[in-house]
Amino acid sequence: MFGLPLSTTLIMSGVIAFWVIYTAVFYFTTSHWAAEDAPEEPRGGEDRR
Asked: TM segments (predicted)?
């Protein structure tokens, strides 16, 4: 790949593959968090200061 040694190509591909898999796992594990985990805000819509 681009004249690089095979070992460098494998290391680069491994790092990229790890990062893509890590990001996908993080996305899928956090995208199903329930809405009830969010802090509740007071009802009424007005700002209470």
From this structure: 6-28
